[in-house]
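Hi team, as promised in this morning's meeting, here are the two structures we talked about. I've kept the exact order from the run log so nobody has to guess. The first one is mostly here for context; it's the second one we should focus on when we meet again. Sequence first, then the predicted structure tokens.
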Amino acid sequence: MSLPPGFLDELRTRLSLTSVVGRKVMWDMRKSNQAKGDMWAPCPFHQEKSASFHVDDRKGFYYCFGCHAKGDAISFVRESENVGFMEAVEILAREAGMTMPARDPQAQQKADKRSQLAEVMEQAVKFFRLQLNTGAAAEARAYLDRRGLDAAALERWEIGFAPDQWQGLWDHLKGKNVEDQLILDAGLAKPSSKGGKPYDTFRGRIIFPIRDARGRAIAFGGRAMDPNDNAKYLNSPETALFDKGRSLYNHGPARTAAGKGQPLIVAEGYMDVIALAAHGFEAAVAPLGTAITEHQLQMLWRIAPEPIVALDGDTAGLRAAMRLIDLALPLLEAGRSLRFAIMPPGKDPDDLLRAEGAPALQRLLDQALPMVQLLWRRETEGKIFDSPERKAALDKALRDKIMLIRDPSIRSHYGQELKDMRWQLFRPQRAAGGRSGRQGRRWADAPASALASTKASVLAVSADMSATEQLREAVILAVLVTCPELVETFESGLEQMRCNDPLHADLRDLILRHMSLDAEAMRHRISDALGPEPLENLFAQRHVAIVPCIRVPGDLEKARMTVAEEMAKLQSARGLDAEISEAVEDLDGVADEGLTWRLSEAARAAEQARRSSQDDKAEYDIADNGAVLSRDERRRLDHLLGQIDLEKRGKS
């Protein structure tokens, strides 16, 4: 359908975006300026506590600085109500008191047909519900009672019964003067191959109505009462109303509950959803007996940014989780992911709730695994990596999966997480007589513990290095605020920069968020978010003020070199710091010889990198081994090694 010129402009003029959005959010009145139409609220599209969702009423646009959702009133209704463009326009037109233009005949006919089918479906809902109270449904009522569904639950979920008759529903609808073709097109009956009357799709089954996000009955699910039936569960065929891969059971109520802060739970079937809701987990949906599709995944993310997939703890449930990971990886965005709550073996959410109650399920939800951990489990569980070839095969499998992720930032974070887990898997085992997975050295002949003075000197060096790291962080942040055009070049390194100072972390996040702005605009955005003091204090620090590219701004190449060098040194220092921290952790049970060797290896690698970097100062490689130590850091390390050596001699 085409709209007349000016219709949408008139619609947007009549409506206040804040009134449209205000139905879904709670405004932060401390941050908002109602007189100017400048409003802020927690984002309705992802869970957060801070107000990062901005509505500019004068311009008629919204933008979330967290999940980057943006648009106008029409797009807001489309996303929040999960409706199409024309349906969103109709909703807003009714609110604005505008009459929708007449549709072209073909579109009007199609809309009328859908409305007729929806009316037929509602008649079928009433028929099935009445049948549940008949004598023929005694076994079905007993089954539902055993599953814990009382009269209130049967009423809420509109559960019914299809009698074991060939034309029970057909004859009922024909008695209501419903046309044959409408019954067939609604998927309620099938034509006979023998030339007789069409026969009912559902026979001898408990019936669960399936409604869309707007509450219209679009399909049915039926559970067979005959244990020998080939299909335990049967859904309506696809119709003009029902697309199985684009529908979710309990969509509308779950969306409402999720909007009130409940976690969105994705279960496997109708009974799981009903049991979850009965125990207080009302934001629960099911994908109607099929593997979750890409469209359903997008629907889930429109409801909540991180749905929890609660799959059965059997082999089939785990396989479904793994298939879902492969589907989701290319679609991941900042703030959009999945978590997985794996049920105990042989149990689904309904079983667990009936056996152990809501607290048991809540514990599983609290322990839900992020996708990256389940991916790691899939590639490593039950496998032995006792050869370089097997380790290489693991690396390749993980690398192939990571490359499916389109978002470069998320891909980088996945790589780092998997790298950390890989290190944990292959890290040295330091029990007595143990073997190092990296070097294969035995340290069993060394003294049982280190001297207290050795431990103290290690801690002192580590603390000193931490202070140095903060100085380097300050230089990096100050240069990038001065030259925002360099942020994209160092985006990955900046994202992974572990800021010891919380204020540095805030500055880093704001720099990344506003990297497309010029220096002046970026400073304004940072000052708006944190106040003027953090930037003033940053640039007032002596070691920042004397940096050449800050003291005399304008030399972009010098600024690039400064950031590259400081990042390289920071990474080198932290690599050494990790060795020292690990050594401190293990000092009570590791020999001084082992400790000395580990720190010497760190120093040797850093020294080699330093010499390499001096050969070509024009390029700085910020890779694992492309870092350098400052003279200060080198001197402290040498002091530490010497201290350990002296103490060893004293003990001998």
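And here is the second protein, the one for discussion:
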Amino acid sequence: MAVSKARYTGAAPVGLADGWSLERLVPPSRLFGANGLRTGPDGRIYVAQVAGSQISALDIDSGDLETISAQGGDVVAPDDVDFGPEGDLYITEYYDGRVSVRGADGASRVLRDDLPGANGITFYQGRLFVNECRIGGRLMELDLNGGAPRVLVENLPMPNAMEVGPDGMLYYPTLGGNDIWRIHPDGGEPERVAADLGVPDAVKFDAEGRIVSTQVGSGEVLRIDPRNGERTVLATVAPGLDNLTFVGGRLFVSGFTGQITEILGGGRTRAVLPEGLTWPLDLTVDRDGVLYVADGTYFYRFTPGTGLQMLGMLFSPGWPGYIRGAAAVGGGAFAVTTSNGQIARWTPAIGEHEVLAGGSEPFDQLYGVAAGPGGEVVAAELGTGRVVSVRNGELTTLASGLDRPMGVAFAPDGTCLVSESGAGRVVSISGSGAATLVDGLTKPQGIVVSGGALYIVDAGAKTLVRASLDGASRTAVARDLPVGAPPGVDPKPLKGLPPFSGPQDLFAGVTAGPDGTIYVSADAEGSVLALRDLGGDLQKGEPA
């Protein structure tokens, strides 16, 4: 396949209505995050990308990427990879609980589909070992012919990427235990090797037989001598490190943000691939006009001239969960919806969150959220087709029977507006039910009201639509936006597994600044767009 410089290439450049400009505030991402790493027989690094259901091969010197297994293909949510004795690529598919095999001809087959949280994978003397990154996970040897697994250890607290050391012992980290263990490949009693780390999520070995482990919580790359326990911090990159691999004597690590970093020694590093956004999902602007970006396991503030600044991530104190929808509510706080089915108020500066609804009975696939004029927090529950409101601990259903609601906004008169991605319309909610405001859309997702108009991201049509609040007129502000699935691709849903409950779906959010700037989360390419009306006649734009 062709070498690429970006993860997404649209069919056409973005087209704008007269008088509008477009600026990419955040550059497009090269990858959909970066998870498992393995050096291939060709000397390239093979990168598994859970969120994008993609595997890419990276040339470490040129930075060129080749897509090995593309989004929409047979492999779904690949988390870790290794090469078998015959050169086939073995893949753990985290959300689907599978281990698949991809041959040299590109064809894939499923070896096992009953391993929930399948994650760490490694070969040793032709034998295949896999573990499950979940509470109560197992470490096992798989039969290459598809026979029943042989369980070495069970009831593990989220084991992850592993490898056999020069002593012939299988070493594996546990995120839940914050330690590293070893066991003989033939079984026996596990032995703890190191504890009180920075949340280790991968173990490999250098040429001197020392453990090298990425620490997802602290962002450290740690070297441990298993013979005497001596520890050395090789470098500190950033929280969210995921895996590592050696190419000859060179060490490379991956991170949730898609950054691939070479560890040079003496604490120095080199970014082989830059970091980027994995999705992004929702956007919000606070009362001071500051833009915030929800990217699932990360949440950022955007500052012109500085760029993205992380306010919180999966391992931050008080993290509310995988964030899909976000709305600034004042005082540095945000109303958020999470993939674990909760509506929460989160204040990142103090590392605290309060669950407003969904604590004892989680919601089914929450997406957009908005703060109402009366202090209520309103959210779209895609799974049940509801729109719910919570205020002072009281939960109210504002609408039900909707077709995959996703985006929520309020008109100036306090009317609640909701996008129905399944029905291709935006409705207004009142005591008498849902009334169509804008129809004929393909897959509307994020919506926002600004300057007396409603802006809709139609992810299916890849268009930003501006509609009057009475629904009488509309026009296309931008076409061929990098939102939704790539052209011709039908992504398979990510089933989800705690703490990344699912199914996960794309959500192109939109928000507006006090100056009328419209911000769009370009989830297909992993960027954030700023669209501005420079005074042109919007009526000259093509009808939407």
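Starting points for discussion:
Residues 476 and 544 are 5 Å apart (CA to CA).
Residues 537-542 have pLDDT under 50 and may be disordered.
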